[in-house]
Amino acid sequence: MATPATAIQQSEVPVLASTSPPSPLDEKETGDGSSTPEKMTPTAAPATPKSLKFWSVFLSLCLLGLSTALEATIVTTALPTIVESIDMGSKYVWVGNAFLLASAVVQPFVGQLADVFGRRWPLLLLTTCFILGSGIAGGAKGAGMLIGGRTVQGLGAGGILVLCDVVVSDLVPLQERAKFMGLVRITGALGSSIGPIVGGAIAKANWRWCFYLNLITGGLALVYLVLFLDLKHEPKTWKVALARIDFVGAAIFMASVTSVLLGLVMGGVVFPWDSANIIAPLVLGFVGWAVFHWYESTKFCNDPMVPNRLFAKRTSAAGFFMAFDGALLLYWVIWFLPVYFQGVLGNSPLGSGVNQLPLNMLLVPSGIVAGGMISKTGKYKPQHFVGFALASIGVGLFTLLDAGSHKAAWVCFQIIAAVGLGIILVSVLPAVQAALSDGDVARTTATYAFVRSFGGIWGVTIPTVIFNGRVNKLLHRISDRGIREQLANGNAYGFASMGGLRNVRPPTRDEALGVYSDALKTVWQVGIAFALAGFLAVFAVKQYDMSRKNETQFGLKEGTEDTTVSAEKGETPAPTPSSTFAPKQCIPRTSSLLNSMIGDSTITVARQYIRDHLPPIAAGAVIHDNGCGTGAVTRAVLETYPELVSSSPETTIYATDINPAFIADFEKQVTSRGWDSAVKTEVMPAEELSLPPSTVTHSFTNFLIFGARDPPKAAAEVLRSLAPGGVAVMTTWATLPHAKALDRVRARLYGEAHPHIKPEWYEASHVENILKDSGFAKVTAFKVESGMEHESMDAWTQLAWSWMGQPQGGWTEQNERDWDAHRSLYGDECVKEGFQVGEAGRVRVPMVANVVVAWKGEQ
């Protein structure tokens, strides 16, 4: 039998020996807003001191965040210069779009890669990818090379955006994350804001340095990461690692999202919105997206890239919506304030950038303050209310702007909106992470990043469609036919952005300004609806306790300020395998629990092969029940041949097991059944049998061999103890649905790659070969059907999780809080593996056993 954290046991169902510490999952939310167990009150936890290594890594992440965000917007002002240098024709639109598309579609996949391969190598490779793409784009001689470089850049940037937040989550506990994530994200917001200014300035000298700049900043960050990003990670074989990657899901997702995004970015720019070239990719993309989420929930997907459990809680679902909505609002404002300044006030692009400084400059400090408040108080929900309230008010106030608005008005309105949007930018991810498991932190963060990227694209698409549509309806107010034609069919935004209105003479200019002003009012009015939708979503958010310890398996190594608290600091040490803590819901691991869990599954197998496949057992036999556990074989023998209890000559049954508790429990059963004269019990490992050689006539190793510490040695000991012509029976499972479900759940929750039962043990030939190699003369095998039944899925998961859910590091208090959520997840996976649930809720588990029979010498 395999071993739990505190003892080695041999019995009929192996204990999974895991290799990684657990990941927490907060209380399970119910439909009425309650939780199980009782709701926890947010408390402020003291901040842990940070080492030089931590700060070196953190500054590298900030530098990467700044560089990647800068690249997203730097070409907006440099593009005219680039187009003059390289003949691109209509392909110029892909200089920006290729970067945005590539960065968005790769993000969820990066989250899974980080779970499988750890954080260090994916981040180093993605940073290298970003630098390489920058070099390709900077050295581009033609449109194809430039767009290709931007695509490679985007792949790296999208992954970096995900892993920056993931690494921060690994390095600091939940309550401190908002502060540090806020700093990383705010550097990104700063990069996005100054990108157009930097791009315009660099383009005047040499536009190629818009890309070459990253060779310096990215290279510096890469060097620091190589030197200091030394994270824990349990290495896996390539076979195990590749088996965990959701290649099919990734292919469906990337194809579907790319199709949707192509439709969105080309609509109204390359093709009209009612064109088949736009409608077809949108429809195909959304259908494919639905297929992706269906596939992720099926048993065909062993380890989903975007598991449905991320959206199962009200708080996480609301959080993802708020992330989408917040990004949509941010881009909505950033994209259309310049239209007001250039189209209505007649500013130049540079003047528009200066007038927009209140928004751009206040996003940073408001986000920093919000992150600091969350870290200090442990409460994020008030920040959500304030953020969306201010965003709603700010967007609403923009509806008042027109050509006669005072400077103080649009400055104050921007300040209100900026503070709200800055708070939203920082405060949402901590809420989502608080509601979900630290074991899912990479996929949670990756999904969050994608949702934000997707929201940003909609934040440009929706108001652009509204604006251009409204302008088209108002064009009759412009008397000059030539200006009407220049503004029609989606050209109004670009006309204003290029400063075209400054060259229009009165009174036509005043007419056009009126059209722009009224069209913008409609844009802002629709924006209010989205802002209020985000505000309403806050009511669905639950406030979780954020003072929990960071249960990551990817923290910094060797005494750095990894978030695992240390005894040297006077704090509670992290659990070790010797921990004796057990969740209050956990049933003690005794033979009684094992018997309740497995039911008649093992004794059914034993009854069949004893009754139907072996010669009759005669009086005087010496029988060995090897790894007796609950005594299934002994019971099957004596139920089939009750006369053996008091036979003459005397029959002896040796029931042995390595677990003293199992032996003690079985001794009580022997006494109560009156088997004392025939059954002898003894604590004994299968690899070191103390039975005399050549004495046993029948040896039964029932569902033990695959859990033995040394299976070949155990088989050799059986052969040694057998008398010439003696028979040995060994059983394994050919199908064990709950084990495969358990493997997936433990991989997701604890990051463990070791299967409950190694794949080779499902094959009878593996046991046959062991017995043949041990010296048995004749070996045969056959299959026997069996199964388990339980009154409900809830009853089954309570038993099974008590027996098999313990992490190798030992149970923790977090596991106690996670109990119901983990059981629920395990139950869902069991259904995927073919558990049969009847109308009354009764559960049946179909199972098939391999029975291998071998003889010593000639029969």
Keywords:
859 residues; alpha/beta; Growth Hormone, Chain: A; eight-stranded mixed beta sheet; two-stranded antiparallel ribbon; 29 helices; 10 strands; 8% strand; elongated; glycoprotein; MFS_dom; transmembrane; transport
Could you describe the 3D structure shown?
This protein is of the alpha/beta class and 859 residues long. The protein folds into three domains: 50-245, MFS general substrate transporter like domains (Growth Hormone, Chain: A, Up-down Bundle); 313-544, Growth Hormone, Chain: A (Up-down Bundle), CATH 1.20.1250; 591-736 and 758-789 and 845-855, Vaccinia Virus protein VP39 (Rossmann fold, 3-Layer(aba) Sandwich). The protein has helices at residues 52-73, 75-85, 93-105, 107-117, 120-138, 143-171, 174-206, 209-228, 238-244, 247-266, 276-296, 314-344, 349-355, 357-377, 381-398, 407-435, 441-474, 481-487, 492-497, 508-537, 591-598, 601-612, 632-640, 660-673, 711-721, 737-750, 764-774, 793-804, 813-832, and strands at 28-29, 35-36, 622-626, 652-657, 679-683, 696-702, 722-735, 778-790, 836-837, 843-855. The strands form two sheets. Strands 3, 4, 5, 6, 7, 8, 9 and 10 form an eight-stranded mixed beta sheet that branches. The protein has a two-stranded antiparallel ribbon with strand order 1-2. Strand 6, helix 25 and strand 7 form a beta-alpha-beta unit. It starts with 27 loop residues before the first strand and ends with a strand. Mean pLDDT is 82; it is low at 1-45 and 558-578. One of its GO terms (cellular component) is plasma membrane. It comes from Didymosphaeria variabile. It is a multi-pass membrane protein.
